[in-house]
Design brief:
The protein is of the alpha/beta class. The chain is built from 9 helices and 14 strands. It is about 35% helix and about 30% strand. Helix 4 packs across helix 5.
Length: about 260
């Protein structure tokens, strides 16, 4: 797998509120990485810093071996996409919003080519939102809007895809669909990094797990089974993790830690 993103001694946060410190990490094409950790530990800040939406405290971010600071805004939008947890709700149709994912690739005329339209159509199909094509965003439920925004992200065809809690507003079945979309983007060669709240789903479906503690330090970077064996997730979240076998597949469940 090709190396797409490299963090070199990257620190995030602000002088009065530092978060992650001196991260040395490499992310490759085809990877689906879940970043997990307690609320307030800096997961969203890390994604925003990688996307150049927040300044680095120190260190360097390399994209395809080139410093992210050397990319223009337009160039960066072609290679990095970022989907936040919450956003404005424009009064446009689902199809129009998905088409916005192609904007970084268009000329000054902002006219979609036949190729752009085919990409938009495929994203709508993959996201399962064909029935929402002509529906306007303010008329949708939060879950429907989230699916449309995921389709827009897929249509952008960025090499690096950053998803901040993509399961927000979604029920269980639609969360699985969102994860499936993320996996499909990775299968197509993207480096996908997403923050996740549901620990069991993160451990089951991602190919790589990055665990941050309350101080913002990265205390684990690896697979689910190794994380389970390390007991770090129990220590960071104050839970007891148990492994179970469900029809030949290992799953992880979490319980409050017994007192005493």
């Amino acid at each position: 797998m090709a190396e797409l993103l490299k963090l070199k001694k990257l620190s995030t946060g602000y002088p009065s509120h530092p978060l992650s410190r001196e991260l040395d990490m490499t992310f490759r094409s085809g990877e689906l990485t879940a970043v997990i950790g307690p609320n307030g530990c800096g997961k969203t800040t890390l994604l925003k810093t990688i996307a150049s939406l927040l300044p680095k405290a120190s260190g360097e971010i390399l994209i395809d071996g080139k410093s992210s600071s050397l990319f223009s805004h337009r160039e960066l939008a072609r290679v990095v996409s970022y989907l936040p947890q919450s956003r404005q709700i424009p009064d446009i149709t689902a199809e129009t919003l998905v088409s916005h994912g192609r904007f970084p690739h268009l000329g000054f005329s902002r006219k979609l080519t036949s190729y752009d339209r085919s990409v938009v159509e495929e994203a709508i199909k993959t996201a399962g939102i064909s029935h929402l094509r002509h529906k306007r965003l303010p008329e949708m439920s939060g879950g429907e809007r989230q699916q449309v925004y995921l389709a827009m992200t897929a249509a952008q065809q960025a090499k690096i895809v950053l998803l901040d809690e993509p399961g927000t507003y979604l029920d269980t079945s639609h969360r699985f669909e969102a994860i499936s979309m993320a996996r499909e983007m990775a299968n197509q060669g993207a480096c996908v990094i997403m923050t996740m709240h549901e620990l069991g789903e993160a451990m089951e479906f991602s190919s790589r797990l990055c665990l941050m503690d309350k101080k913002g330090d990265m205390v684990w970077d690896g697979g689910a089974e190794g994380l389970y064996q390390s007991k770090l997730i129990d220590r960071v979240f104050g839970v007891e993790t148990r492994r179970a076998d469900a029809e030949g597949k290992q799953v992880y469940v979490f319980f409050p830690k017994e007192k005493g």
